[in-house]
Amino acid sequence: MTRLARRVQGFGTTIFAEMTMLANEHKAVNLGQGFPDFAAPEFIKEAARESIAAEINQYAPGSGQPRLRRAIAQKMHRHYGLVVDPDREVTVTVGATEAIFAAIMGLVDAGDEVILFEPYYDSYLPSLQFAGGVPRLYTLRPPDWGIDEEELEALFNERTKVIILNTPHNPTGKVFSEDELALIARLCTEHDVVAVVDEVYEHIVFDGERHHSLLAMPGMRERTVSISSAGKTFSVTGWKVGWSVAAPELSQAVFRAHQFITYSGAAPLQEAAAHALELADEQGYYEELGTMYQAKRDYLLQALREAGLQPIPPKGTYFVMVDISELGFDDDVAFCRYLTTDVGVAAIPPSAFYTTTGGGQMLARFAFCKTEAALEQAGRRLRRWRGV
Ligand SMILES: Cc1ncc(COP(=O)(O)O)c(C=O)c1O
Question: How far is the C-alpha of 298 from the C-alpha of 102, rounded, in Å?
C-alpha cells in the first residue's frame, strides 16, 4: 500500500529530470532542459549582491517588494500601454510556475472546466488536477500550429471557467497572432471566462514578430491574469522570481492562494529583479536579448538542416521542434533516448506535453538557450551521425 496521497500518485519524475540525468550519464550536449548555460548579466547579479549587503534579507511583503511591483507596473505601461496599480494589481510569486498554480487554485473550483492548448507547459495539468478542474484540450498541429475558430469555440460552454494560454508558446515556438488573441478575447467575453496567460517568453521573439498581451486587448483588462517572470528574460531561471498582473478581483484570487502556498519569495532577488526591470528599456536590453536569441535560433536551424533534419522554425521562445517522422524511430521517446546515448545530443520528447495519445510522437524539442560552443558541438555530432 502506498503512503502517497491519491492526488500525487499519478505524478512521475518529470521528463526534464530524466533526460538531464541521461544526458549527464552519456556526456551529451544538453539541448533538453530550457535553462541558459551561459552567465547571467552582470548588472542583475551585482544588484542581488548589493541587496543582500544592504540587509534586504527578511521576508518580502506577501504581494512582493514594493519596488518590484512598481517596476512591473511601469513596464506593463511602457510595453503594452496598460495602467496598472502596483498595490492592487500585482502579485510577486516564486516563479511563473507558482503564479500559474495560485491563479488556478484561486479561480477554479472542482468540476469547473478549463481550456488548455496542447502541447502544454508541464505544470498546467497537475495544477489543474490539484484544484479538481476538468481539462478541455485544444490540440495545436504542426507545422503552423494554427487555430480553427469552430474547433476552439466548441470547447466553450457554461461550465468553462478559465482558459490557459501560453504565448510565445513552449514547446512549439508559436506566437499567438493579434487575430487569434482577438478570437480568444471574443470567446472569453461571450462565455464569461477568465484567461490565464503565461507570457514568460514575452521578450524572446524573432523576425520582427511582436508579442501581444491579451490583457491589453479590448474587453480583456477585467478578465485576464497575465503571468511572467525574470527567469527567461534575465537568464536567471534559478532565481524563481515571477509575478501576475490582473484587475483587483482577479489579483485577489491569485494573492489569497499565494499567501498560503509560499507567502513570499526571496526579498533580495526581488529587489534585484526590480533593478533589472528599471534599467532594461533604457539600456536596450530587450533588443539585445532578442538579437542574441535570433542568432542562436538561426544557428541551430542551420545546423539541424545541414544534418538533414526538418526543424519547424519557431517565432518565439528558445525552443525548436523537429519533425522526426522520416527518421524511422518508433516514437519521440525512442528517438530522444537514442540521440542522447548514441549521438551525444539531448532533446526532449514532446509527447510528455500532450494528453492525447500519440500527440507529439513524431516530434522532438531542442533548446537553443546555450553557448555557441555547445550549439557548435551539437551541430558537429548531428552531422557526424547523419554522415554529412
Ligand atoms: C511556458 C513556461 N511557463 C513557465 C515556466 C517556468 O517559469 P518560472 O521558472 O518562472 O517558474 C517555463 C519554464 O520553462 C515555461 O516554459
Answer: 36
Angstrom distance (rounded) from CA 277 to CA 233: 10
Number of domains comprising the chain: 2
What's the chain's Rg over C-alpha atoms? Answer: 21
Choose among 272, 273, 313, 315: nearest CA to 290: 315
Q: pLDDT class for 3, splitting at 50, 70, 90?
A: very high
CA distance 59 to 334: 46
Distance CA 242, CA 239 (A): 9
Identify residue 265 by its one-letter amino acid code: G
Please answer whether residues 363 and 319 qualify as being in contact, where contact means their C-beta atoms are separated by less than 8 angstroms. no
Q: Which amino acid is at 128?
A: L
Q: Phi then psi for 314, rounded to 5 degrees?
A: -80, 150
DSSP structure class, residue 343: I
Model pTM above 0.90: yes
Residue minimizing CA distance to atom 7 of ligand 1:
96
Protein residue with least CA distance to atom 16, ligand 1: 170
What pLDDT score was predicted for residue 16?
82
Report CA(169)–ligand 1 centroid distance (Å). 11
Is 164's C-beta closer than 6 angstroms to any atom of ligand 1?
A: no
95 lines ligand 1 (CB under 6 A): yes
- Percent of the chain at pLDDT exceeding 90: 95
Residues 293 and 249 occupy one common structural domain: no
Count other C-beta atoms under 10 Å from residue 215's C-beta.
22
Q: What is the pLDDT of residues 65-103, one digit of tens each?
A: 999 999 999 999 999 999 999 999 999 999 999 999 999
**Atom of ligand 1 at shortest distance to CA of 99?**
11
210 and 102 share one domain:
yes
| All cell numbers assigned to 14 | 518529470
Could you tell me if residue 1 is inside a domain? no
Q: What is the CATH number of the domain that holds 362?
A: 3.90.1150.10
Residue 97: what pLDDT?
Answer: 98
CATH at 225: 3.40.640.10
